[in-house]
Amino acid sequence: MKIGITCYPTYGGSGAVAAELGTQLSRRGHQVHFISYAPPFRLPSFQENLFFHQVGTMSYPLFEHTPYTITLAAKMADVALAEGLDMLHVHYAIPHAVSAFLAREAVEGRLKVLTTLHGTDITLVGTDPSLRSITRLAINMSDQVTAVSSYLEQKTRETFHPDRPIRVIPNFVDSTRFHPGQDEARHRFARPGERILLHLSNFRPVKRVTDVIRILARVRQEIPVKLLMVGDGVERPTAHHLAQELSIEKEVFFLSRQDDIPSLMQVADLFLLPSEQESFGLAALEAMSCGVPVIASRVGGLPEVIEDGVSGILRPVGDVEGMAREALRVLTDESYHRHLAQAARQRVLDHFDAPRIVPQYEALYQELLEQ
Ligand code: GMT
Predict the structure, then answer these.
(1) CB of 284 closer than 6 A to ligand 1?
(2) How confident is the model at residue 362 (pLDDT cuts 50, 70, 90)?
(3) Which end of the chain is more exposed for a tag (fewer CB within 10 A), N or C?
């Protein structure tokens, strides 16, 4: 099949999922064309069957803002005609599904549109009164719609009462890249005997990164421990300031954005994701695939990923004390740590490994073609 994919390319789980999906599809012999303003951050620089088409910016004195939705739609239509695309698979509804709808009109329907909903496109952006009606239109005008968790599917139904069913296809991970590894790089961050906590996100308020710092402060009262903070975003200065205030800044490595996520995950003893909201929690899944136990909030789609007490631990949002207590238990009881790590890896292999999920998208594409 010839598939166009559009996503937010710079950072975030939806872009990571789209890039991984495109990579996997191209390996399985499909021709994949990414259409966006920049190459997705996790896309291999060269791979057979994988192409990138950049959406240019158009400036004109009348335009106070560049009309990206329109230029994207025009590029989608051009690529569809030039490359003979069968369909567009857009990740994150706003504005991608709207652009895809316009592109399909521009090529007079000779193109199918699949929209995958990821999270705040429904729970925050889409519900904003200024965008609500257009989000509903984008969902209804797609030929198929998927959501990354049952939680998000239900939320979409409750919020938008769409005309069409929404299928759940969960996120996935390439377990051959994200696998349990050696601790060779540990010495870069920790002395022998010190444990390593890890957090990875885009440091937006919804991630509650200050909870991560507070958990570190509490755990550090009992055992020697370091924290790796991977990623960047608006809350980074606040987290840094809090670490200084609590006199633990020397125990925290703010590593900013990193390319080699599996290697960093492999040095960690515990992954923390105390988010306010999470429709899925891809970073938690990646940590689990590396055999790293996760402590996360019991919120959104996270309980679909982590079985509390079996393949990870869930606590109420904001329960810093409870999360710190659990962290201490995981970090000091070796057999409990091993048990959680093995169960986490197994859960990924059983339910979220790429070879289990990618064929679900392929089957949906096939259905679209036959529609
Ligand atoms: O919706 C967002 O906030 C952005 C989006 C992203 O691009 O990272 O994150 C969402 O999609 C991810 C991939 O499907 C999920 O793993 C995240 O849980 C989800 N974020 C939220 O729901 C806050």
Answers:
(1) no
(2) very high
(3) C
Domain span at 6:
2-172+353-370
- Under DSSP, the state recorded for 252 is E
SS3 state of residue 370: helix
CA of 1 to the centre of ligand 1 (A): 27
Is the Cβ–Cβ distance between 145 and 139 less than 8 Å? yes
Residues 199 and 132 placed together within one structural domain of the fold? no
Is 178 inside any structural domain?
A: no
Assign residue 270 the CATH number of its domain.
3.40.50.2000
Domain identity same for 114 and 126: yes
Query: What is the spatial distance between Cα 156 and Cα 147, in angstroms, rounded to a whole number?
Result: 9
Q: Stretch 181-188: mean pLDDT, rounded?
A: 82
Q: Is 182 a residue whose pLDDT tops 80?
A: no
If you measure from the C-alpha of residue 116 to the centroid of ligand 1, how many angstroms do you get, rounded to a whole number? 11
What is the count of structural domains for the chain?
2
Pick the residue whose CA is nearest to atom 19 on ligand 1.
119
Q: Name the one residue in this structure whose structure tokens are 């996270």.
A: 302
